[in-house]
Amino acid sequence: MRSLIWFRRDLRVFDNSALSQATNDATRGVIGLFVITPKQWKQHDDADCKVSFWLNNLRHLSRSLAKLRIPLLIATCDTFDEVPPIVVSVARKHDCSSLCFNREYEVNESRRDKHVTAACEQAGLVVRQFHDRVIVPPQEISTKDGRFYSVFTPYRRVWDSKALEYAAPFPEPRKQPTCDVKPSPVPDELTGFDFSNDRSDLWKPGESEAQRLLVAFEEKIRRYDSDRDCPSLDGTSRLSPYLAAGVISPRQCLAAAVSVNHGKIDGDAGAKTWISELTWRDFYTHVLVGFPRVSMNQPFKLKTNAIRWQTGEREFEAWCEGKTGYPIVDAGMRQLNQTGWMHNRLRMVTAMFLTKHLLIDWRRGERYFMQKLIDGDLAANNGGWQWSASTGTDAVPYFRIFNPFSQSKRFDPEVEFIKKYCPELAEVPANALHDAKKLAAAIDKNRVDYPDSIVENKFARERALAEFKAVS
Question: What is the mean pLDDT of the segment spanning 374-391?
């Protein structure tokens, strides 16, 4: 029997559920397949740097698979609707009797996978699907009456009780019999995408690089609880692009944290906090599956559709460009634009500024992030935006509105991060960058080329409170 494994966002060899099973089942070898769908990716607002990162990792994956005598074939079509006949055609051409793949959970991806499964089964293939993007499968956690959770804390209690059952990595894939099928070249260009700034200098592709980052993070994980919120510190794992592309598995990340806790979920504060972040990642996927509307441009709290969002084209453009006059907000947005990544604390600060201070629809910010982020993931991005906008599950209460100056004073007290991304503020004293009046005076005194704030803090807060209260 020859198996076909269909890769998507699981671009690795180690601890890959579908690959492990495919190599175990096959007696006549395994064929790998990846289908490029540039028009669909564009419709999903996938960032140029993210798609470039995928292709760079595909090249590494192809070389790793070649060592196992598994050729990786590349096919291209516009959209997901065209994928089923391609998979069937590849399977027939190479005499494959089974198809293995790891599940994806978004609405369009789930619909595609159902159509592929139906087409392959009609063609006589055995289809096997696996949960691999999460630690605990979404349907394995439910309330006592069988519903999906919409609040994180009770979800986390159940997740904690189950996670170790799923934490064991899958066996390494076996080397296959000699295969005369040649791997396909990975394209250097794709229509509609600009790879001129692919961020590979900041985010090196490859499974070995992801493993290196994980090992490096294990050395500082005990400080994660205290360091993770300070953007000037190298206090996070920086593994999110690799998790989003499946270059490393969430099980591997959990195993690293659990090892610090001597085989338990609970224990060291830093490891426990990082495990909590992995749980949030699972939780947002759980919500995506249980409440599909959140991946269909709808808020979880449908009543918030009544919020009268501001048009604010000039304000939205200033936010995108990092020219709002609020230093911590501008530094965060410039980090995103320059690197394709943003520190998690700043994702919350910038998102809440757009939705509360500027009262601009969260969907516009969510889309902009997806168009820029190298680690853009619908479940996490949507969950984070709806949390900040107070429209989602387990969201921050609408009356909790971050003061950007308080946030910078707390998390960037020496303004190292702000001055890195807003170099025009280099000569402005730190205390002035944490205070609106002092900042305005310092800018005027030093003739600094930095914009005035586009909205006054007190006015913005009162406007947001009134609007959200009206629909609460």
Answer: 97
Beta bridge partners of 276: none
Of 310, 311, 286, 312, nearest to 300 by C-alpha is 286
DSSP string, 34-68: EEE-HHHHHHTT--HHHHHHHHHHHHHHHHHHHHT
Give the model's confidence band at 442: pLDDT under 50 very low, under 70 low, under 90 confident, else very high. very high
Host domain of residue 124: 3-132
Tell me which of 290, 319, 346 is where a domain ends: 290
pLDDT score of 164 more than 90: yes
Tallying the residues shown for the chain, one arrives at 472
Q: Does any domain span residue 160? A: no
User: Which tokens belong to 309?
Assistant: 């969002």
Amino acid letter for position 106: E
Specify the residue for token string 């610090």. Answer: 260
Residues 324 and 384 in one domain: yes
Catalytic annotation, residues: 277, 280, 309, 344, 362, 385
Domain boundary among 132, 153, 182: 132
DSSP code string of 72-123: EEEEE-SSGGGHHHHHHHHHHHTT--EEEEE---SHHHHHHHHHHHHHHHHT
Q: Into how many domains does the chain fold?
A: 3
Q: What is the pLDDT of residues 230-284, one digit of tens each?
A: 999 999 999 999 999 999 999 999 999 999 999 999 999 999 999 999 999 999 9
Structure tokens at 108: 């369009």
DSSP character at residue 171:
P
Question: Position of tokens 């453009």?
Answer: 317
Asked whether residue 86 is domain-assigned, the answer is: yes
Model pTM? 0.97
Q: Please tell me the predicted confidence (pLDDT) of residue 338.
A: 97
Nearest in space to 21 (alpha carbons), one of 118, 134, 99, 115: 99
Beta partners for residue 102, in sequence order: 130
The Cα–Cα gap between 227 and 233 comes to: 7
DSSP run (H or E) holding 276: helix 269-290
